[in-house]
Design brief:
The chain has 268 residues and is mainly α. The protein is built from 13 helices and 2 strands; from the N terminus they run ββααααααααααααα. A two-stranded antiparallel sheet has the order 1-2. A hairpin with a 6-residue loop joins strand 1 and strand 2. It is globular. About 2% of the residues have low confidence.
Length: 268
């Protein structure tokens, strides 16, 4: 019996369970908790696990994942937005686990905080809570800066536009988030500080970006090292400019909303 694909509306012939146009599976059964669980299991835990395939692809053949998405491929790998959102969810779960089972790894040692003067200790605790509550937002905030640095250092090649460089870095930091999450049992078991893990991953981030540049832009070793070092320099310049802008805005807001406080401080 002929029928139309429920996703793209293309014609499906009898005994055809997958659409030849979009690749979607023909589904006739009613949804039940068991069916939903089976679908999720097949997609994310089964042999056709696109999440695991995406991770392995980013480690071995990043150009296949990144260039594939840019050129229109959508079924083989998890798209960058979903991949990044999954990684942020894992980061949130990691922070939750560390807060409840190993708060010292996040610098939340209550005993040490109470040894500091009350006001300072409370400020430190509030800052720590704020930082880990919005750690995903901080990472996301700097993604355009990374993309801009990549766009600038590849002006001589012009293979990617700014948005396509952004896609590359979304995959980069999504994978970093996932690797950080995998380290959670070690952090809890051996009381390893979160900051130490982040610092240890810095060389991994540099090597990962260099590897992506090499594969996606077909660079030789010398070009890869040069572009990687230039990316660090350009990003730090952009980061410094952003920080100056943030400080100026913060001072302006402080002056606007707390002019009395500034006048009191100046008087002293």
């Amino acid at each position: 019996m002929e029928r139309n694909c429920k996703n793209c509306k293309k014609l499906l012939y009898a005994q055809q369970n997958y659409c030849s146009h979009c690749g979607s599976k023909w589904v006739e059964y009613r949804l039940t908790p068991r069916k939903i669980t089976a679908e999720l299991s097949n997609r994310y835990l089964g042999t056709d696990n696109v999440f695991l395939v995406t991770i392995l692809g980013l480690l071995r053949y990043p150009e296949d994942v990144i260039n594939g998405y840019i050129s229109g491929q959508r079924k083989k790998y998890v798209n960058p937005i979903n991949f990044y959102l999954i990684s942020l969810s894992l980061v949130g779960l990691q922070i939750f686990l560390l807060r409840h089972f190993a708060p010292d790894t996040l610098g939340m040692n209550v005993a040490e905080i109470t040894n500091v003067q009350n006001n300072t200790g409370q400020s430190l605790e509030n800052f720590t809570d704020f930082f880990y509550d919005y750690i995903g937002a901080f990472t996301t905030f700097f993604l355009p800066a990374y993309a801009l640095s990549g766009y600038i250092i590849f002006l001589d090649i012009r293979k990617y536009n700014f948005t396509e460089h952004l896609i590359l870095y979304v995959y980069v930091f999504a994978l970093v988030n996932i690797v950080t999450f995998v380290a959670t049992p070690l952090m809890i078991g051996f009381d390893i500080p979160y900051q130490m893990v982040s610092l240890a991953l810095t060389p991994f981030i540099f090597l990962q970006v260099a590897w992506y540049y090499k594969r996606c832009f077909k660079l030789d070793i010398q070009q890869t090292v040069l572009k990687g070092l230039l990316a660090i320099i350009v990003f730090n310049v952009i980061f410094a400019i952003l920080m100056i802008i943030v400080i100026i805005i913060a001072i302006a807001l402080l002056f606007f909303f707390n002019s009395d406080l500034l006048n009191t401080a100046a008087a002293h």
